[in-house]
């Protein structure tokens, strides 16, 4: 079943839904949770919104963000778990997965490439640039009119996942939806500055460290950065300050595939992939147990930084016939 009407019915029949996105929440995940949460509240539901991981400071301007409970899940008699922007159970986070294990019905609303969604009810549209686009369609089904708070959350969801409408996932439908959001008065230049125009000093210091560890393959088609725990700590940075660093290897002229390696601990490395025109990085991440989209994907791999880099670069170079 991949039917938005059916999912709408399930949402309408629920009384006490709990909503979440994915670990290391981003703009699409947070904006989508908040917009759907507000809509369900307007429908008289007792809504709880949760995030396993801390919320990046960057998104503190999102209307309603303080309502998201971070960390442990409040004990309540939930009747439905609504998961947005998350294609696999593992990315719900340790505090939320038990809800699935205990048999709570799950609705998954998502735009990742995924032919086996884990929900009891699923709506997956991989051609949507952001889950926020799907939430807009859902609001229409729910009979909810847009207002400025909803629009700011949805605009943020879409503008972040499309990299300001620059990525390949941007469609005419994206722009039609954005036009509707702008009609609600979204302050575009203010949001653009808050999201893309400024960063905490720690992020810039981390960028400096990351750029000193930037490598390019001999053929010039693959570029990567690696960051270990020590370097992150040396500038007092956290997870949230790493977001966006992969855009620097991606920016290099001639590079098709950008990779970032980030040491989580001695035995786990988070790897992110971005491509420009040809490489299907969803397939590449899948080889290492991850996934995502054709041009943006990720995975977490067991092993130390050196081992993981070697394994991933070997696989990556094969895509360019040795490189
Ligand atoms: P990022 O590199 O920004 O963390 O993630 C890029 C894209 O890949 C996002 O759409 C994200 O959902 C997906 N992604 C990142 N890490 C994983 C992972 O470990 N597993 C899966 N299935 N998808 C991931
Ligand atoms: Mn998304």
What does it look like?
The protein is an alpha/beta fold. The protein folds into two domains: 4-196, inorganic pyrophosphatase (n-terminal core); 201-317, Diaminopimelate Epimerase, Chain A, domain 1 (Roll). The chain is built from twelve helices and twelve strands. It has helices at 4-13, 27-42, 97-101, 131-142, 148-161, 172-182, 188-197, 201-211, 229-234, 247-251, 281-286, 305-319, and strands spanning 17-20, 48-51, 68-70, 80-84, 106-110, 121-124, 214-216, 222-227, 257-265, 268-275, 291-292, 296-302. The strands form two sheets. It has a six-stranded parallel beta sheet with strand order 3-2-1-4-5-6. A hairpin with a 2-residue loop joins strand 9 and strand 10. The longest helix is centred in the N-terminal third of the chain and has 16 residues, at 27-42. The model has no long low-confidence stretch (mean pLDDT 96). The structure holds guanosine-5'-monophosphate and manganese (II) ion (MN). Manganese (II) ion (MN) binds next to loops.
Structural descriptors:
323 residues; alpha/beta; inorganic pyrophosphatase (n-terminal core); Diaminopimelate Epimerase, Chain A, domain 1; six-stranded mixed sheet; globular; binds guanosine-5'-monophosphate; binds manganese (II) ion
């Amino acid at each position: 079943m991949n039917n938005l009407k059916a999912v709408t019915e399930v949402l309408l029949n629920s009384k006490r839904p709990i909503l979440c996105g994915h670990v290391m929440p981003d703009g699409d995940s947070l904006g989508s949770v908040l917009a759907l949460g507000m809509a369900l509240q307007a429908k008289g539901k007792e809504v709880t919104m949760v995030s396993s991981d801390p919320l990046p400071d960057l998104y503190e301007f999102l209307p309603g963000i303080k309502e998201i409970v971070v960390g442990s899940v409040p004990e309540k008699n939930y009747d439905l778990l609504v998961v947005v922007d998350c294609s696999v159970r593992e990315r719900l986070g340790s505090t939320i997965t038990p809800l699935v294990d205990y048999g709570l019905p799950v609705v998954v609303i998502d735009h990742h490439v995924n032919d086996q969604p884990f929900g009891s009810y699923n709506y997956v549209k991989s051609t949507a640039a952001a889950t926020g686009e799907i939430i807009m369609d859902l609001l229409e089904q729910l009979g909810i009119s847009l207002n400025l708070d909803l629009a700011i959350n949805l605009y943020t969801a879409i503008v972040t996942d499309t990299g300001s409408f620059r990525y390949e996932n941007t469609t005419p439908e994206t722009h039609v939806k954005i036009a509707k959001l702008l009609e609600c008065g979204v302050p575009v230049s203010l949001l653009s500055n808050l999201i893309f125009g400024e960063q905490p000093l720690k992020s810039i210091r981390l960028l400096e460290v990351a750029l000193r560890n930037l490598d390019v393959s001999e053929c010039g088609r693959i570029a990567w950065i690696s960051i270990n725990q020590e370097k992150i700590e040396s500038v007092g940075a956290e997870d949230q300050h790493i977001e966006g660093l992969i855009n620097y290897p991606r920016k290099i002229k001639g590079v098709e595939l950008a990779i970032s390696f980030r040491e989580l601990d001695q035995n786990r490395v988070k790897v992110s992939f971005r491509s420009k025109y040809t490489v299907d990085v969803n397939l590449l991440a899948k080889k290492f147990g991850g996934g995502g989209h054709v041009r943006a994907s990720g995975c977490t791999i067991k092993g130390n930084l050196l081992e993981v880099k070697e394994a991933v670069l070997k696989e990556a170079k094969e895509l360019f016939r040795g490189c």
